[in-house]
Amino acid sequence: MSKQISRRDFLKLATAGAATTAVLTGCGPTSRFVDREPYLKMPEYTYNGMSTYYATTCRECAAACGLVVRTMQGRAIKVEGNANHPVNLGKTCARGQATLQGLYNPDRVENPVKQARGAQLSQETLDWNAAIQIVSDALQNTDPSEIAFLMGMAPDHLFDLVSDLANAIGAPAPVRFGALGMFEARATLSKAAENLFGKVSMPFFDLENADVVVSFGANFLETWLSPVAFTRGFAKMRRGNPERRGYFVQFEPRMSQTASKADEWIPLRPGTESLVALALGRLIAEARGGAVPAAFASIDPLTVASDAGLKLETLERLAQTLVNAHHPLVIPGGAALGQGNGLAAAESVLALNALLGNFGLPGGVFVSPLAPAQDAYHRPASAKEMADFIAKMKSGGVKVLFIHGVNPVFEMPKQFGFAEALASVPQVISFATFPDETALAADYILPDHHGLESWGYQRAVVSAKPVLSGAQPVVTPYFNTRATADVFLAAAALAGGKFAAALPFADEVAFIQSKLAGLVGEEGFFAAPEINSFTAYFQQYGGWWTNDPSLATPSAASAIAKRFTPAAAEFTGEGEFFFLPFVSPTLGEAGANKPWLQELADPTTTVMWNTWVEMNPETAHELGIENDDVVQIVSEAGGVEAPVYLYPAIRPDVIAMPFGQGHTAYGRFAAGRGVNPADVLGVHFNEAGDLAFAGMKVEVKKTGKKKILSRLESRIGVYGEGLEKE
Amino acid sequence: MTVDLNKLHAVGAIAEAAEGKWGMVIDMDLCTGCQACVAACAMENNIPYVEEEDAGYGRSMHWIRTERFWEGEYPEVKISGYQPMLCQQCGKAPCEPVCPAFATVHSQAEQLNLQVYNRCVGTRYCANNCPYQVRSFNWRDYQDSRVRPEITILANQFNPDVTVRRRGVMEKCTFCIQRIHKAQDKAKSEGREVEDGEFTTACAQACPANAITFGRIDHPESLVSQLARSPRAEHHLEELGTLPRVTYLKEG
Amino acid sequence: MADRKHHTSHEEHLREQRLMLDPMPRGKMNEMVMEAMHTTSWKFWLVFGLLAAIVAYALFYKWGVMILEGLGVAGVNRPSYWGIFLVNTVFWIGISHAGTFISAILRVFKAEFRRPFTRAAELMTTFGLVQAGFSIFMHMGRVWLSYWLMPIPNQRQLWPNFHSPLSWDLLAITTYLLSSTMYLFLPLIPDLAMARDRTPDGTWQKVFYRTLALGFRGTEGEWTHLRNALNIFAFAIIPVMFSVHTIVSWDFAMATRPGWSSTIFGPYFVIGALHSGMGAVVMVLAVVRGTMKNMKYFIRPEHFEAIGKLMLIISMAWAYFFFNDYIVQWYGGDKWTKELLHWHEAGPMGWMWFAMLIFNVAIPWATLWNKKWRSTPWLIFIVGMLINVGMWFERYIIVPISLTINRMPFTWRLYQPGIEVWLGIGTLAFFILLYMTASKLIPLIPVWEVQEGQMAHSLKKYGRETVVTVSELE
Question: Is the CB of B70 inside 8 Å of chain C's CB atoms?
Answer without folding.
Answer: no
